[in-house]
Amino acid sequence: MNNLRIGLLESLLLVVLAVVLGLAMNTGHSTLLIGLVAGCTLLVATFLSTPLSLYVLVFSMLLSPELMIGALGGGGATAGRGVTLRFDDFLLLIIGFAWLVKMAVHKDSPPLKHTPLNGPIMFYVAASLLATLIGVLQGRVKPTTGFFFNLKYFE
To answer: What's the pTM value of the predicted model, to 2 decimals?
Structure first.
């Protein structure tokens, strides 16, 4: 963790988060406060260290519980399943937001590193989206079910 540097922008971010948390303490909702503190801590950690955020993400994928939201009907294997949300889904939102902020702050670095796997991964994503679109056009897949399935799959 030798790349852990706190500059002026990071210090300002920490001060703003401290003020927001201080104001949230007056609301009297302890579970909201605990979630806000955990989220803010995670946001700062992911902004400061990308490898740390990836380690946290891997461990959260192994240990997080599932929450079923709604009941989207569909055909085949997804019949009657709802949208499944896990802790790592929310963690991905926080990491993605921190990544976008980091890219806006550090404009000199490229947003994605080029690896030999980028091409095959994009081909796979395109094939899955095309198959879902064909299923929607033929009436075998409901658009909302296909959208959420692909969203969760590519996450």
So the answer is: 0.56
